[in-house]
Each structure stands twice: as C-alpha cells, then as structure tokens.
Amino acid sequence: MPERIPNAQTIFDGLNFEEKKQLYERAAEFFSDNKRELFDRLAPLRSRHIAVVLENIYQSHNASAVLRSCDCFGVQDVHVVEDRNPFNPAGDVAVGSSKWVDYYKHADIEAAYAHLRSKGYRIVATLPHERDTMITELPIDQRTALVFGTELTGLSDKAIEKADAYVKIPMYGFTESFNISVCAALSLFYLTEKMRASNIAWKLTEEEQITLKLHWATQVIRDGEKVIKTLISR
To answer: Cα(207)–Cα(21) distance, rounded to whole angstroms?
Structure first.
C-alpha cells in the first residue's frame, strides 16, 4: 500500500462496520471476481500480532525483499525508520507486495518504539546479545515487533539499548551474519508458523479485515481512492 502515517485518519475511519461492508460490496463491482476471491481468502490470514521494524535500510533490494517476505507470511505491518537512509523498495524485487502490506515511516527509532508500545508491542532486536534468546525459544504470547538493522553496521545503539528483548538465529558457518532479508525471512517463517499453530488471538477482527479489503480495493481499482470517496459520498 502507499506509505501510511502512524495514527493518521483514513477515508474509512468515519464509517461503522455495516457501512464498511456495504461500501466493500459496491467497490467490488469495480474489480474482478478473481481479485475478490483472493481478498476474501487472504484477509482472514493476515496478522498484526507480529510486526517488522527496519532501521535505515539503504539497499533497495533488501527493503523490497523484506516487504515481499512480510506479504508472503501474512505479516501486515512494516515500520520504517529512515533518519539516515531513505526507504525505496525496488519494484522488480517486491513484485507488487508494497500494494498489500502497510508500511509506516518514522522520523527516528524512539518514535517508532513509542508508537509500537502504544499498540501493545514488545520490541525485540535481532542480534546476538548477552541477554539474547534463540529464535526457536522466543515467546510470542504478546504482540511482537522484530527490529532489523542496516546492512553494514546493524542496529543503532539506541535501537539496541531501548529494546525489550533480543533474539538470534543459530549459525554454524564461518560467516558472521545472515543478509538482512534472509534473517527477516527465516525469523518470520518460524514465528508466524508458531503463531498460527498456537491459541493466540492473532487474526484481525472482522472489522479490521473489511477495512483491509477496502484498502486493497483502492490498489486494484483505477483511480481507486477517488472512486471509493465517490461511493462514500453517495
């Protein structure tokens, strides 16, 4: 999806659940039945229980690969800190995933952490640390935000210091670390599988699902936001 502003109003926020359902029925007339079937099948599989934070990722193919992994594993929210490096997903790597994943930009790591904590997230930095936990042992009973750092220097001191916990992936070779996109994919694969096999209430509510489908609709309808606003005003 286009860049989202944390806590900002959207065109759907003034509508109640029934109004959103009726709006979606009208909007669905503007895109294919195949897309509707996809939206209806995938929305119940999306989750905000696990989120991703990217701090100053400067290689566009890595940023894009992480977005693609989030989409593939059903992780809906990505939070981007770009106080040094701009976030520029590369379309050929993302393969359209930026249409389906919400990504929020934050001025600095403190702002990102404050926003996530206000939403009930536990902040987990991904790096070896004296208080770290193996990814296979990380508890996810609470909402969890995984933080990944820049390619060369990793996470900033502030990102490390202000995290709630630390996690690492086991490695048995000569190389000291995984590429960030590989690290994100491995982490998300394990944690989302663990989440889906648990009794955690990880799914979006029905209203969150219909709101998400409305956002997706704006991506597939030509001049989607304009069309949706016209439908709302009728």
So the answer is: 9
Distance CA 126, CA 70 (A): 16
| Gap between the Cα atoms of 17 and 205, Å rounded | 11
CATH class of 45-202: alpha beta
CB 6 within 8 A of CB 210: no
CA distance 70 to 192: 10
Helix axis angle for 180-196 and 60-72, nearest 10°, is 10
* DSSP string across 12-39: TTT--HHHHHHHHHHHGGGS-HHHHHHH
* DSSP class of 223: T
pTM value surpassing 0.90: yes
Could you state, in order of their start, the residue ranges of all structural domains in the chain?
45-202
Express each pLDDT in 27-67 by its tens digit. Answer: 999 999 999 999 999 999 999 999 999 998 877 788 889 99
